[in-house]
Sequence to fold (974 residues):
Amino acid sequence: MRYLPLTPADRTAMLAAVGAGTIDDLFADVPADALLSGPVEGLAPHASEMAVERHMARLAAKNLSAGAAPFFLGAGAYKHHIPASVDHLIQRGEFLTAYTPYQPEIAQGTLQVLFEFQTQVARLFGTEVANASMYDGSTACWEAIAMAGRVTRRKKAVLSGGLHPHYVGTAQTMAKFTGDVIEARAPVLSASADDAEIIAAIDDATSAVVVQYPDILGRIPDLAAIAEAAHAKGALLVAVVTEPVALGLVEAPGHLGADIVVGEGQSLGVGLNFGGPYLGLFGAREKFLRQMPGRLCGETVDAEGKRGFVLTLSTREQHIRREKATSNICTNAGLCALAFSIHMSLLGGEGLSQLAALNHDRARATAERLAQIPGVTVLNDVFVNEFTVVLPADARAAVRALADKGVLGGVALGRLYPQDKALHAGLLVTATECTTDDDIETLAATLADVLKKGA
Amino acid sequence: MNAPNASGWKPEMVADEGDVLPATVSGDKGLQLEEPLIFELNRAGQTGVDIDAPTRGPVAGLAKFLRKAPAALPGLTEPEVVRHYTRLSRQNYAIDLGPFPLGSCTMKHNPRLNEKVARMPGFADVHPLQPKHTVAGAFEAIAELSDWLIGLTGMAAVALSPKAGAHGELCGLLCIRAAIEAKGETRHIVLVPESAHGTNPATAAFAGFRVESIPATQDGRVDMDALIARLSPDVAGVMITNPNTCGLFERDLKKISDAVHAVGGYVYCDGANFNAIVGKVRPGDLGVDAMHINLHKTFSTPHGGGGPGSGPVVLSEALAPFAPLPFVQREADGSVHLVEEEEIASTGHAQSFGRMAAFHGQMGMFTRALTYILSHGNDGLRQVSEDAVLNANYILRALEDVLEAPFAKAGPCMHEALFSDANLADGFSTLDIAKGLIDEGFHPMTVYFPLVVHGAMLIEPTETESRAGLDRFIASMRSLAERARAGDEHLKTAPHYTPRRRLDETLAARKPVLVWKGA
Fold:
């Protein structure tokens, strides 16, 4: 067995050294009737690297990968080009096979990366501080709601209809158990976000207003106006960014008055991965620091006065505070944070803005072309790289028919909102720097064909 | 071969410790490289990505939303970026460099085939919301992993969406709460042994329960009599780690499960230490209702300096109906199907407690774990736990005469060996041993955990260490234990040979600097 260094002779000698006759003597505390006598049913014996690779490749080949088709999906997971050096660097064993940096003298590499990552996230979001990552955007969003509850000592969060439905669902699940109140609403197929409704819903019991920016339909809410209204009632504004590339073009939420900014960092460096692992981003005002969830890396000095980094403020965390911790999170998304940080270091602030501008250009080109198809209406005229079109019928059928013709044409709103028929004609379309003119033409021609045939 | 040494130089003639060598101009010392922050390397206007110029500007309506200035973030060319991160990587210890005997963390070798498979475009470059018929292979891979996780644990079902171990704990407790509510009951208490990992009480609190602590016996196990005495109709369940954090098998778990079930409660098992029993013992046979599996421990997905993890939760028949959305279900005809919000009513899953996170779970970890399971097979997995336990006992017996091993007399340990600081000289602590181990070129063991042992040192070698490697580690540990007993003051300032010496954690917490404040 290629992964197990002990030889039969080693095992015999070691058993003798520990005074055991057989290996089962070391399992003596396991009740006899609980010790398995045979192999696990159905599981084959060990297999060669080549045999396992062949099996897994066969499974992988049954999937249509994003790079093999004209591809227009988004809705919280985005296909961007990842520079080759990112994946090379994160596979260095010193990063890949290190543990959480509990021994800082031999983990300065990881710790400095986390400090740089926190700074990058804070500057991207326009917040004063940021943490060392959460699991993903949806869980970061719930943690922000919970944190706003601790800060304001209130229990009711008002969610924008533009918040990703999986994020809403995650918050609703958690709130059932914590006693928080989640006031959610479905989106409406209109050109602009539901700012007015959100502002009207804020009252003196509201802990947080949670607004996605840009929102699930690609629209851009007026965060500054919502922040003002929230603060007037003593509530916090939580801004949720599912597409960080958009922040190369539109203003950072923290600069518009958001108190907590959370997001999904997958777009930069991480890849689609069929939904995970992804990367939760979490930034906030410094005055809320001690209410923040998750790991924090801080600067300090060593015994010789040299600058170094450590995990800090761990008195908020589960391994110290146990049942009084700000969150139960332990392992987070370290390697994804590294990938994000490397991609961001390659881009720089100006590169990110250029990338966002190119994404916007590609989305404009796509929207202009789709608008020419009979029966297709582009819903929102303000967007960054993701927008909604309205089809004559349920978009799920069109998406399926497009896929049958080798085109991954977008996310049907019916997939995200199965219960809400008013949304089913909606199709969410995303373009990025990966989208070519040929892709756009193929999508448009195939969609026109599909709609003509009545899908 | 032995040429005469004309200079008369001998290895022992190195400079005395008191001698001060001249500092280098660069601050580097040979291969010991200093590295500034990326922000300090910044050269304005540089980028490592060539981006085509757009032909269309922003749509008119976007004007009022536009950024006033690009984010103040450094951009560097590719050679500068590659060098920055490569230099930083050299300041890390890693399992690729040597043993990483962190107890309860299961730092084993990460096979590179797993990395290769996870990066196959059919797994890595697939969107979670693609039409389901375009991702049949992904669902099949998930279903295969599910089959083996269920088979290895003897449980009825598995929820795959939890993102890490602690998220899995939450999933298990939310299933328990949903099951209790479905019976029309209200229960407030979760019993947690005092030796538990900190996530256990934190998770129970986040699931809305009150935590009551259960003491340990003299031999390092849950005090079953104390536990049973606390059982009442207000107890929702217990959270037990097995093997426990003292490295011991909880012999009475089945009896505890029966007693908990008798009062209508549920048994949560923390599966952090599943590596000790995989292929040998099925938790389902011990009456467990829910257990998370850290794929990044037992099934060797890389820890990555703190994640990503993955925490699938196996469930008993009693809890399976409450599993979170979404999940992959194998149909009678062998086909595999994803159950999301859309399908819960039609597929009889209306009792699901809901969604815990966006999308379908840590696919990149599933493919690695499945690759690991298939590589080892039924014989290899059994050998994994046997070798892990043998290696830990080998360390236990090799060190018990120089370090106090509080539970060693009662019998063997499982996958990790636990020592206390009782034998060290006055003024010497577990921390000094740990830092001395760093100078010896090893990552330290888990220290000061579990809390039930004073100055705990918890050593988990895992099955991927060779006998020769264990002997080297043991030699260093014996030397350190003897130095600490002899009062060697050098230990108290260790480590001496690392890129940084002991760091001032108090300063970091008192005056938090969490972001770079430069321009």
Summary: Chain B has two domains: 114-370, 378-497. DSSP finds twelve helices and twelve strands in chain B. The radius of gyration of chain B is 27 Å. Chain B touches chain A through 204 residues (CB under 8 Å).
